[in-house]
Amino acid sequence: LREMGVDGVFPVGTFTGEMVEFIHSALSSDAEHWDARLETMDPAERDGLILQKLQGQVRYAWERSGFYREFWRDAPVDPAHIQSLEEFARLPILTKEEVRVEQEAYPPYGRFLCVAQNDIHRIHGTSGTTGRPTVFGISKGDWERIGEAHARILWAAGVRPTDTVMVAAVFSLYVGSWGALVGAERLGATCFPFGAGAPGQTERAVEWAQMVRPAALYATPSYALYLAETAREMGVDPRTDFGFRLMFFSGEPGASVPATRQAIEDAFGCYVVDQGSMAEMTPWMTNGGCRRLARGMHLWQDIVYTQLVDPETSEPVVMGGEGVPVYTHLERESQPMIRYWSGDIARWEMADCPCGRTYPTLTQGIYGRADDMLIIRGQNVFPSRVEDVLRGLDEFGGEFRLVVARERGYLDQLTVQTEVSAGLWASAGEGGPEGLEALRDRVRDTLRRALGVGVSVELRPEGEFERTQFKARRVIDLR
Ligand code: 8LH
After folding, report:
1. Euclidean distance between the first and final Cα of the chain, in Å?
2. Of the CATH numbers 3.40.50.2000, 3.40.1160.10, 3.40.50.300, 3.30.300.30, which one belongs to the domain with range 374-477?
């Protein structure tokens, strides 16, 4: 097209069917980018493109969604005529609770839908284990755009059409597994939707992975570690008997926690890519690392626009700072989320990545949730920091828990319960944990130095804590 003098940014949907097949077959598999023009664009030029898309998305929601009509009624800016990114940032932030309340009043979708109910192609949602579930209606066009966005981001992760991609996450309402699948399909890879969650399924995953030898795995980081542990118990070496080249993860911190990432890379002999925003924000891969990034995730701003804001004041946070990601769909016709509050904590920077992408980067990934952050005697403690310390210890037995209790009605006390490797536990003999006092003291001192606050440590035998096939829950709050 460029040889013919046709240039410019083509809206998603311009090319269909055979044209897309043709364009992608022309993409050599050592090409770094799926869409070099969009991915390496000058950031200022990209801002112009984002503004154009935002104006369209906001006006569209304003005209079609009863919810946004009401929600923005008293907004300090005119939703039909957003003039700048700064103006856009003055629209109110939308929270999960507000979505829940709206969906309860107008079930099942709330007045978010901007298409006819009949045009909903897929229904997904949150599991609703805490509180009312949230429902997402996704149109056919949106599902195709999600596939296209995920294919583009998986390409950056290093997935190629010659690869087999094993999806080892539960296939249910959870859109993580489906999102990975539709992206891998769109990219032209061989898809292996294995699933997770059924009794005995991890043992079967070990057998199948040996037989099929997929190049890539999608799961949660905790599940990958559990898979490696299960393989070893079955006498299978995850490094040599599987042959994974890469793993891409979402759903929880891990892939950007240095010691966890290292543990997975060492266990499988593969490299790791971190991904994941929120189910509501699908295409959720738009927080997505690439094969060249040692840690963290690029923000694919031209698909979902992300801003970091101060957790207290909601004011914009400058590059280099820490804040809460607030997300906005730029390509959503069915149930667009506009300025959606994640409650997560991350730091953003204009990092120089060898991949050449000019997106901002969450350089340490998402390392915590504002509501998961423990404040122990005035010090902020993220469970992911504790994880980093523990997984860096040779004696670590694979799982841990954080127990928070309140003493004397006001003093929060953190106890780290950590498993110790089976060999070490056995060598401590009948005396059990008492024989391991020196180790306990060393773990306690290492944690105190890393966290900046004193914690108690209890040692437990390897295998004591339940392993998960989904997202790990490691904080036990007794307050
Ligand atoms: C993460 C990460 C990450 C998500 N690092 N924390 O799996 C992606 C989508 C489908 C997902 O998990 O959505 P869900 O269930 O709505 O959970 C979103 C939350 O999960 C998000 O707010 C984060 O707290 C966490 N999360 N990906 C660290 N790569």
Report:
1. 63
2. 3.30.300.30
